[in-house]
Amino acid sequence: MRACVLALCTALLSAPAAGADDYNFDAGQFEKKPFELNGYAELRAERFWLNRENALYQLNFFDTEQRSQLNRNTGALELSGLYRAGIASVQATVHGEAMRDELGHEGEASLYEGYLGLEPATGLRMEAGKRVLRWGKGYAWNPVGFIERPKDPNDPELSREGFVLLAGNYTRSSDGPLKTVSITPLVVPTADNLNEDFGAGDHANPAARLSLMAYDTDIDVVVLGAGARSARYGIDFARNLTTNLEVHGEWARITDAAKLVLNASGVVTTQTGDVSSYLLGLRHLSARDTTTIIEYYYNGAGYTEQEMRDYFTFVHAAYAQFLATDDSTLLTRARSVQTNYLRPTPMRRYLYLRVSQKEPFDILYFTPALTVIANLDDGSASAAPELAYTGVTNLDLRLRLFFLSGGQLTDFGEKQNDRRLELRMRYFL
Amino acid sequence: MGTFTNLTLRLNPPSPPFDNEGFGCLPIFDKGLLGCSPPLKKGGQGGFVFRRAPIRIALLALTLLAAPAHALDGDDILRQVDRKLNPESYEMYRKLINIEPDGRKKEFVMFSVKKGRDKMIALFLDPPSEKGRATLRLGDNMWLYIPGVGKPLRITSLQSVVGGVFNNADILGLDYSVEYRVEKLEQKPGEYRLDLKARTAAVAYDRLKMRVDAQALVPVEIEAYAASGLLIKTLRFKDIKDFGDGLRRPATMETDSPLYKGYKSVMLYAKIKARSFPDEVFTLDYLPRAGELR
């Protein structure tokens, strides 16, 4: 009897599955509409294990209650809208973020993009407004990314704010070894209250990108004329060497690159000169669906090992003086140039390695990964194992733990924290 | 249609379409008679020199008269299967459904356009977490555009663009005759059986065993194998439907895989239409706006 009831229950429970073959697909609801809205809401919880001996802890926390941990919660909302009318379209992206930790809370909202596009013919397009440009082939760094805000190699896929610009694009395609030629001229005007983050002064800041797809190789030649930033030019490429191995590279030449340097005595000077930066990378996919990305980055505008040691030495000395005299003048001076020194990778030579495994043990939508960023100048490094799961529709979950290692006066060895745990939940709307 | 039953035709050696060798070397005939090495030799003066010409011509004529003229070329059958499935240049909508052993489903909707032999774009329209993700294929070159990243990244041709049972071969597959050559054709009652071998290593499945409905000339079932001989998945085509403009083809493809025991995936097809596109659509600059093609 019990077996019969069980069988009946099983049959009833499985009834919907029996009808699962009756699939429905109304493609009409996915046809193009005049207005589209997309976006995501995100919650991020982080714990930082702070190291009071490190220079950047002393610099950032000298005037607050001393602590060994910091817990931070962040909520973010990003919305993108698109409106189409004939050959015209208007696209906008807004990003808002609110953060709270034991030190306080803050929030801000920004227009990441907002521009008008006109496309009178396929292959001919003009855009005006605030626009995000992404130049270069590198994954973690882009030496030829002349018109974009700095990328964080710990999170290269994060969306970033654009600049106000006026751009055109003309593309021609054909059969044969030269498949595509595309030219993108643009100006990024700067003035008071206009693109002030790009640079100071009233300038047109003309730039251009020539893109080719020739002999199965992507090639871009990019140039930015002198203006709010010094003149610079570069080239990048990407190509598949085999069906599971891709190679890419970038090279950039920056004329009159200026660098603020604070020496061990606390004297700030500006060094100016022409520098080159370059990147060489590989992306490999194994038969077991393991993807490996490896990139070598030389940052010609970065700090040398000695310059970085001088800065950290000065911060330690300034902190010691603050403890002894309660005078924070020197620490304030160190803070005045910290934007340059506190970039994610401020020095010369770095190696990026990311290994990710798609769905190990046949666990669908699960991707573990390990990311290592090594400073080849001073031997310090950051290693971040990661677990990502996308099995729930529209919900992305990612858990990462960062381990920073390095000796005294090294890049990663003097960061404010030794470890960081991050849980990110992103729900798509 | 031919009337042979249980006739095995070995196309040996394997060959690309339109190659002389692809048309013959039928084992039931003397190799020399059909001249597979080769049948006609080009002369030095621009003409053709027939060796033992009178005998061969007579035997060839007899052979052509005796055999059904249109049923025996595997590559030709494969090309016909391709045209029965899609126009050479087209747009289409697809829904991909991954069904887990506990009945949970995850669905994706894609819009695809294709031009000629090897230009293709696949754009995800749903769910919102995947919306805007687009893949461009030009021959063996592939790029993936993710809206958050903001630029197309070149990927290896075997890179998976979305999690789950589906891979690039399901999402960005070109015509079967472009990616595979027929190594063996077998005719059974009511169906053809084709053994296919990938033309290049860029193709996800090294070999396919395809059962083709002899009347409708559409696939009934395809087994996909790795180079090691491992069965990767089985595709079953069902629900033949009229898509208009003379296109009658299966509207449903079900997939199961011994690698994902208990899992099943289904692909539903809709709004397949012949359409022409300018070449400039299949470029990196256009890829972020692929949705405008709908």
What does this structure look like?
- The complex is a heterodimer of chains A (429) and B (294).
- By secondary structure, chain A is mainly beta.
- Chain A has a single domain, classed as Porin.
- In chain A, 13% of the residues lie in helices and 51% in strands.
- Chain A has five helices and 18 strands.
- Chain A has helices at 2-18, 55-61, 305-325, 329-336, 338-341, and strands at 35-50, 69-85, 88-101, 104-121, 124-131, 163-173, 178-187, 206-214, 217-224, 232-242, 245-262, 268-285, 290-298, 349-357, 366-375, 381-389, 395-405, 417-428.
- Chain A has an 18-stranded antiparallel barrel.
- In chain A, helix 2 (55-61) crosses helix 3 (305-325) and helix 3 runs antiparallel to helix 4 (329-336).
- Chain A is globular and about 70 Å long.
- Residues 3-20 of chain A have low confidence and may be disordered.
- The radius of gyration of chain B is 22 Å and the shape is globular.
- In chain B, the strands form two sheets. Chain B has a 14-stranded antiparallel beta sheet. In chain B, strands 2-3 form a two-stranded antiparallel sheet.
- Chain B contains five helices and 16 strands.
- In chain B, 13% of the residues lie in helices and 39% in strands.
- Chain B folds into two domains: 27-70, no CATH class; 83-293, outer membrane lipoprotein receptor (LolB), chain A.
- In chain B, a hairpin with a 7-residue loop joins strand 15 (248-256) and strand 16 (264-274).
- Chain B is mainly beta.
- Chains A and B meet through strand 6, strand 7, strand 10, strand 11 and strand 12 of A and strand 4, strand 5, strand 9 and strand 16 of B.
